[in-house]
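Sequence only, no structure available. Ideas?
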Amino acid sequence: MKIKLITDTGADLLDEEIIKNNILVVNLAVTFNNIEFNDTLDVFWNNLIDGKISKTSQPSPQAFINAFSSIKNDEIGLYISLSSMLSGTYQTAMMVKEQNNYDNIYIIDSKLASIGQKELVNKALELINKNLEINQIVNELELFKTKIKLIAALDSLKYLARGGRISKTVANFANILNLKVIISVTNEGIKLLSKAIGNNHATTKLIEFINKENINKEYKIIPIYSYDNKNCQNFINKLNNNLVDKKMYPIGSTIGTHIGPYAYGVVFIEN
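Reply:
I predicted one. C-alpha cells follow.
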C-alpha cells in the first residue's frame, strides 16, 4: 500500500521540501495578540524582535480529522509529531485516531523538535522509498529517533520565560550577566548542559560538547540557527569538522517563539 507521510510545523520543513516530497503538514498555530500569524519567517522574527509577543497552540482535533480523513482507503498515513514533552500535539492526534477508528493511520511521537524532528521525517522518506512494510518502517524510526541529538546555544532566556518554562527572575538575571545556556534535545527530553558568559564562551562550550559525542559519520552534522546565521557561521568555522553540512537550516516560528532569535547549534546522529 502507498504510504503518505504526515508531520507538523514543529519539524521546520521548508516549502520546497514539503512540495518535493508531497508531505502533508498539520499547522501549530502561532499568534501575535491572539491573531493567527500567516506571514513569512522574516516577518515573524521582525515582529518578535520589535517586542511583539507570540504564542503557539497545538492543532485542533478538527485539524487532525481533516488530515487523517484525506488519506484514502488504499493508503496508509504515517504521522511524525512534535515531541509530546513539548506540546500536546501527539496526544491530540492519538485521541483523534482512536475516537474515529483511523486504523490506517500510524503515529510516531518524535520526542524531538525543529531540525531534529525533520531528520526523523527525512529518515521516514528514505524508508518509504525502499518500499518497506509499515511495521518495519515504524520499528526502524522508533530506534532511529533515539540516535538524533540537537545541541544549541540560546542567546536569551526571556522567550522561555514568556512561555512559562522558566521564571522571569531567572531570565532577567541571565540577561544582566549576558548569560547563554547550552541545551540538548534528545529522545530523553530537554537538558541544560552548561552556562556561558557571552557568545565566544558559548561557542567554545558548544564545540567541547560536540567533540565528545560519538557521531555517526554516515550522516551530516546539520547547522541550525534562529533569525540570524552569523553566530552559527562563526561557530561552524571554529568547529572545523568535515561532516558539517554546507547549508545552515533556519528554525521556524513554532520553536522560535520559545527560544527567540540568535540561537545556534547542530543536529547530528549518534552511533
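The first helix runs from residue 15 to 21.
Hope that gets you unstuck.
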